[in-house]
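[09:14] KT: can someone run the structure on this one? pasting the chain below
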Amino acid sequence: MRTNSFMKIALLLLAVLVLMAGGCNGAVDDPDSSVILQLAVTESPSITGQDEGGVCNFTITEWSADFINAPKNSSAVTSPYNDIIVRSWVVSYSWPGNAGIVPPPDRLLPVPGTVPANGQQSITFSPILFDDLTGAMAGTSAIMTMSVDAVTQTGDPVGLTILEQLDIESCAVVP
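[09:31] RB: done, C-alpha cells below
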C-alpha cells in the first residue's frame, strides 16, 4: 500500500514538473494561431486484473476524452479557417521507479479528425493494448505522455503534449 501511495505522489510531482517546463500546450503562445487545442481526458478507469489459475487476466475499459478548439479572440469562432485538423496522436509509456518494467513501444491513437472552430470532438480509446500488458505491470502506475500534432485549416501549428496516469490494479485471487 505504501509503495503505491508513494508512486502516485512521485508520478504527480513528475507531471507537475513537466507541465512547468512548458510541455502542456506548445502552441498556446504561437502568435500566428487564433485558436488553442486542448485535450481533456474525461474518464480514465483503472485496468483491473483477476488471477485465474496463476494467470493474471486484465480487463481494459476504454477511456473518454474531448478535443477542444478554444478561440483566443472573438474572430476565431468561425469555420472553416479556425478549424483544427488533428494529424496524429501518439502515446508513450513510462514506469518511473519500476526499472524492471519494459515500456511498450509508442502507440498511434485514433484521431478525431477535424475539431470545429469554438467546438469540440469527443472520442473513446483504449489506453493500452492487451498485448502490451505483462504480469509485472500488475499493481503499478504508468505515465502516459500524449503528443498531438495538429494544425489549423490555414496551416498554423496548434499541437500539444499532456501527461495522464494509467493505473493497473493488482490481480485479485479468485476464491
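[09:33] KT: thanks! The first strand starts at residue 35 and ends at 43.
[09:34] RB: yep, looked fine to me
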